[in-house]
Structure formats: structure tokens, C-alpha cells
Amino acid sequence: MLTHVLAGLQGELGIEVGAVHVRHGLVAGSEVWGDICAELCAPLSVPLAVREVQVDRAHPGGLEAAAREVRRAALLDGLGGGVLALAHHRDDQAETVLFRALRGSGVKGLAGMSDFVHVGAGGRIWRPLLDVPRSALHAYAERHGLRWVDDPSNTDTAFSRNFLRKEILPQLNGRFAGASANLARLGRLAGEAEGLLEELADSDLEKLRIPGCMQMLRAPALGLSSARLRNLLRRLLIKAGTPMPDEARLREAERQFREDAAVSGSRILLGEVALCVYRQHWWLEAATVPAEVADFRPWRGEAALPWAGGVLDFCAVSGQGLAADLVMAAPCRVGHRAAGARMRLNAGGASRSLKNLWQEAGIPPWLRDAVPMLWVEERLAWIAGVGVAAEFACPPGAAGILPRWSVFP
How far, in Å, CA of 366 to CA of 380, rounded? Predict the structure, then answer.
């Protein structure tokens, strides 16, 4: 039906309409559905693409989730900067909001589906019918003599969404006038609330973040209310693209974050990431701790070396970092901590032990075994996160080499 509507508005809206049918072969007889789509598109002069997909029946989220994922990927394939119009309507929105509410979703989940969603490189998903009830769409299709297909899988109430659609929502609408409309309205209001919570979290992040790095100040974070701090954590997890932990786990992470002992070094796992605290700073990093590299590796001037799950870059600079003439004139190697190693950061100053250097530089304990160090012959010239030894410091205006380790936040 949406194809029929948009095809009739091409001239008025200045758009070009194409249609996509995704064939996943989960329903017996569905191989002819593409032909029915072609019958609709042909008289409208709308080009049709039929895309074959394979659904993982062993998907951990179940068959519904697996089919939804591959269908979405197929629809977005080749979208680029275009717009993908989907025919979700008000009853679909009500179903989504109710389903997520029953699963215990927060405000973000209750927000349901959005009218517009940005995807990929400039592409957008558009749902123009979210405020239109199913009954109005059915009447439109009958009025224009459109042919449609009833997917028999949609009647199987063993699937939770079908159960809500077939059994629960009709009873709610019969008992409470406008139940579907009110649920859809709840979704819109939850979407507005979620937007405000995101704005609040971004404002808090702006105040807490240390310029030039991904770390944040802990003291002002402790001054936030529990709800506001957890809102900030949720926002960071969303930005990191990691699955959201349940409420109990998030509350436990907040409790550990606030403990006085956290300043000595705390690493709280939240699925694929870890919430890290050291002294008065905190940040998120990958859950996997970089492994210690057991041996030394020669460095012969390469622009980059892999090191402990990250990349050690050597950038050509001027007037900073290591003096290029001193470093390149002798054999160099990258290694780890060595017993009794010491380094002097300031000319005329005393040499310091690794423990003191790491503590002063704020290197957390769980990273120290993997921290790369550059040795020039037998002299320690540079430590990641600490700096350059005074005797190897690059003079102003001279050619320098500035190492950087990507693991550091």
C-alpha cells in the first residue's frame, strides 16, 4: 500500500520510488510473493528488486530476531544516501511499545519506533504511517482494489508479538477505548523523554570530560544523583555501541564506582566494555585487558608495530618526542617492564623507578604489564603514557619521533 501511495506522489514530492521484496523462504508458498509484488509495481512503473537471504535458525535471539536482522540488512543494502520508507503503522507502534514494556524496557525502549532514523552514510529510514491505524490502511487498499498477501506466520501465537497482536491488543481495545492510540502516544512521549535524557547526559559529559582525551573527572560525577549518573552511564554505553546491561548490573556498577577504594584501581565489567576508575579519573575501555608481551621486539624505524592488542605508532614530528638522530643511530627495541629499570624525565633531575613513574602518570595497574617501552641499546628512552627520557628529548626545531599506543584512553 505504501508503494501505491508514494508512487502517486512522485511528481508532487520530486522523488523516485523503487521497491524491494526480501525473500527468506521461511513460509511455504512464499516463493510467489515476489510475483505479487511485481504485479503491483508494474502498472505504477516502480522498479522492483527481489533479494534472497538466508536466515540463521540457530540465532540466539530466536527465529523472529534472525529474520528481522537479515531483512533489515537486505533492505539497507545499497541505500547509500537514500531513504528507506517502511509501512509500520499505529497498531505496529502500539504492539512494539506494549511488547517492550512487558520485557521491562526503560524509556528508550518504550519510545518505540521513530518517524526518522539516520543510518549509514547519509541514509535514512522513514516511517510515514506511524500515526495511521491499520483500519484506515485496510480501507485504502480495498478502495483502490489493491491485492495483498496475508503471511500465515503472523497468525502463529507461539510468537510473542503475534500473541499480543491477535489476543491481547483486541481485548485491550475492546475494554479501553483508544488503547492502541494511547500506547502509540505513550511511545511518542517516551521518545521525547529519551531525547531530554540524552541532552542531559551529553551536558554532563561535556562538564566531566578532560579535554583531549576520553577520560572524565570522578569528583564531579560523584556529585550527580544516582539516577543522573546511571543515565550518564547508559549514554556512554550507547555511544560505545555495546549491549545494555540489566538494571541490577548497572546499579552494582554505580555502587562500585562510588566506593572510596575505587581510586586505587577499579575495573567493572559491563559486557563488552569495562568501567574503569583510577585515582580521580574514569573511562570506558574494551573488556579484554591487553596481554603482557613476553619478549622484546626490534624496532627499525617502522611507522607502526602491533603491541598487546593495540598499535604502537611512531609519528614524525618537529621539536617534540624523541630526538630522531639519537634514536635512529643505534639499535632499538620495544619491550615491557624490566627489573630495576629507571628513567629520568627532567635534565638534572633524579631517575625514578617504574612504579613511581606509573603512579605519577596515572597508569592503571591492569595495564602496566603490557605498557610498551622503547629501549635504545640498553637505555630506556620512552614509556607509553609516561614520556621521553631527558637524554633522548628532541630539541626545539629538530626532527623528532613521537610514539603513541592506541590502547590508552
Answer: 22
d(CA 254, CA 244): 14
Spatial CA neighbour of 240 closest among 66, 363, 409: 409
Q: Give the pLDDT means over successive 10-residue stretches in the chain (409 positions).
A: 92 91 83 89 93 84 81 88 93 94 89 89 92 94 89 84 92 94 94 95 95 91 97 94 91 97 94 93 90 83 90 94 93 86 90 91 88 93 94 95 87
pTM of the predicted model, to two decimals?
Answer: 0.76
Helix or strand holding residue 405 (H, E): strand 399-405
Rg of the chain on CA atoms, in Å? 29
The alpha carbon dihedral of 329, 331, 336, 338 has a sign of negative
* Cα–Cα dist 316/32, whole Å: 62
Distance, C-alpha 111 to centroid of its chain: 18
Residue with cell 566494555: 273
The identity of residue 2, as a single letter, is L
Amino acid at 116: F
Calculate ∠ Cα 337-342-348, nearest 5°. Answer: 150
CA distance 250 to 270: 8
Alpha-carbon distance of 337 to 372, in angstroms, equals 8
Q: Cell 485491550 belongs to which residue?
A: 172
Q: What is the residue-wise DSSP string for 338-370?
A: -TT-EE--STTSPPEEHHHHHHHHT--GGGTTT
Report CA 41 to chain centroid distance, whole Å.
Answer: 37
- Answer yes or no: are the C-beta atoms of 105 and 64 closer than 8 Å: no
CA neighbor of 343 nearest in space, from 368, 374, 367: 374
231 close to 200: Cβ distance less than 8 angstroms: yes
Spell out the alpha helix ranges (H) of 77-167.
90-102, 107-110, 134-143, 160-163
How many Cβ atoms sit within 10 Å of the Cβ of residue 137? 20
Coil, strand, or helix at residue 261? helix
- Cell numbers representing residue 346 in the block: 627532567
d(CA 144, CA 187): 31
The residue with cell 521518545 is: 191
The C-alpha angle with vertex 316 and arms to 360 and 366, in degrees rounded to 5, equals 30
Can you tell me the distance from the alpha carbon of 337 to that of 292, in angstroms, rounded to the nearest whole number? 10
